[in-house]
Amino acid sequence: MAKKLVEVRNLKKHFEVGKGKILKAVNDISFDVYEGETLGLVGESGCGKSTTGKTIIRLYRATSGEVRFHGDDVHQISGKNMKDFNRKMQMIFQDPYASLNPRMKVEDIIAEGMDIHGLFKGKERQRRVFELLETVGLNKEHASRFPHEFSGGQRQRIGIARALAVNPEFIIADEPISALDVSIQAQVVNLLKDLQKKHGLTYLFIAHDLSMVKHISDRIGVMYLGAMMELAESEDLYDEPLHPYTKALLSSIPLPDPEVEETRQRTILTGDVPSPIDPPSGCPFRTRCPEAMDVCAEKKPQWLEVRPKHYVACHLFEPESQ
Amino acid sequence: MSGTLLEINDLAVSFSTQGGEVQAVRGVSFAVGPGETVAIVGESGCGKSVTAQSIMRLIPEPPGRIKHGSIHLHGKDLASLTEKQMRNVRGKQIGMIFQDPMTSLNPTLTVGDQLTEGILTHEKMSQREANKEAIELLHLVGIANPDERLKQYPHQFSGGMRQRLMIAMALMCKPELLIADEPTTALDVTIQAQIIDLFKEIQEKTGVAIIIITHDLGVVAQIADRINVMYAGEIVEYGTVKEIFYQPEHPYTRGLLTSVPRLDGDRSQPLIPIVGTPPDLFAPPVGCAFTSRCKYAMKVCQAHDPEVTELSEQHYTKCWLQDDRVEKPY
């Protein structure tokens, strides 16, 4: 397999929420992202998937653990290297309405990164902006307009153009299509796929829509309450999910096919996700797990590669409990 | 289907704004039978929520206005009722569930007060009797310890539990019709699965008819009997759930179905999106509103609005491709 581009090791991000309480948004997760792949990160709201993305790109400082990019710990980078790192790693945000400055022209939004890094100047700058607009399916007339003149899908394209402007290697896309209509989602996903092919980009694609994540990702990580539960190649995860949470998650997604839905056997989880401020002891999923055992409350399950390239954290798959 | 519960005929709703008149709903007709589930599917701005709110007469007037058309519930035209008469319909004959359970509950009232408010307005009943009804319904929607829960406030409930509360509240006066506007959109998928099951269970137990508004085709496949596909203020296709999923005729319906990936689908198959964006409803196109995004568009589509074609007893579409003179491309 390809080279490791990003290595996440025992990453923790905790927030103090007052009265001495601590919210463990990301609690000891480890995974790699390989060059040229798309790694999908899925989970329900509050599972820590966005915090993971933001900690990787250093929008948050890690509480402990490391994130290595090309082998360098991103939380230790300083000075000139920092600028270089910032250029190579970019982010696309969820809300196309809130993530563009309403007082800036599209041209300046897209070129802001280039200006900071001194990449393209004068006529080159404009030429580059026009080229980027075309790459994302807009045209050069759009350069002198303001964000409010665009629809949600078009704004998300502007966000993508901005991320591409500095020739990044790695893009973290945090729910890039959740705010868009169904017919527009497919446009943006196809665009992201094309750009990956053309520029050899690596993506961390964060979303809650497992159907879309499976469509775009080579591998998928499933998170629950700050922990990584399972990580495998997309087809594997779908064909042979191991973790009871992954199984339940897959089975709760409705398929756009009424005949299949009529006969489909589904596992419906009871109850809600517990609070990340006071998570259950041992395995975070045990309170809703249909297969919970005594050991699940006592010990946190280990993160094991139980099959080639298929990782899971569940006592059902630990050697001593089998 | 035994008779009709609700019948909407040629409904048009507009809003006047500073920029002119927005024609949000432009001639919508459909019917709902007792005990059945009808879905309205479409993208944001297609008029699906405005249609639902018009049935409840919840459109703020002004700036909104029902321009023409009728909404008959048991043969009585809701569009012509006075506000006072309408109050006897809302909550009592038709219950409504909104998208966001976080903002549709009053944070300063106990859940018990909110649940019983409607029934105390509509029925001659003591608070004690109303509480008894409320406890029964909380039980039905799967909320444990209902006696205790009645005294609590909405913030003490999770998102999924609040949506259960909303459903219980809508059912308090035993309505014949429940309108659910994107009832699972704000919920996580494992909770969404619980709520969809709850809808089915409630329908089995009470026989209530449901109009569900959603953009999620998966949810529709699970719950609906019949589907209205809306685009730019019009119903472009209408049929049973199987007709819409397996024999879609309108290019927009076909486009919607090919632009969503399936969990059990093949990753190497690219998604086929619908190009472009929906038209501006300040000045809707003269011809078919989908023309500019339609890959099969012909000259006639731009100039003339297509007629509704009946494909089978319960399957209709509004598209020029159905005209006898056209050779269909698919």
Automatic annotation (TrEMBL), chain A:
Pfam short name (any one): oligo_HPY
BP term (GO), one: transmembrane transport
Cross-referenced Gene3D superfamilies: P-loop containing nucleotide triphosphate hydrolases
Residues in the signal sequence: none
Domain ABC transporter as annotated: residue spans: 6-250
GO MF terms held by the record: ATP binding; ATP hydrolysis activity
Keyword set, alphabetical order: ATP-binding, Nucleotide-binding, Transport
PANTHER family for this protein: D,D-DIPEPTIDE TRANSPORT ATP-BINDING PROTEIN DDPF-RELATED, TRANSPORT ATP-BINDING PROTEIN
Similarity comment text for this entry: Belongs to the ABC transporter superfamily.
Protein name, as recorded: Oligopeptide ABC transporter ATP-binding protein OppF
UniProtKB/TrEMBL annotation, chain B:
Name used for this protein in its record: Peptide ABC transporter ATP-binding protein
A GO MF term: ATP hydrolysis activity
UniProt entry keywords in alphabetical sequence: ATP-binding, Cell membrane, Membrane, Nucleotide-binding, Transport
PANTHER family for this protein: DIPEPTIDE TRANSPORT ATP-BINDING PROTEIN DPPD, OLIGOPEPTIDE TRANSPORT ATP-BINDING PROTEIN APPD
One GO location term (cellular component): plasma membrane
Pfam families membership: ABC_tran, oligo_HPY
Family: Belongs to the ABC transporter superfamily.
First-listed, main subcellular location of the protein, grouped into a coarse class: membrane
Keyword Cell membrane attached: yes
Topological relation to the membrane, as annotated: Peripheral membrane protein
Compartments, record wording: Cell membrane
Residues in ABC transporter domain copies: 6-257
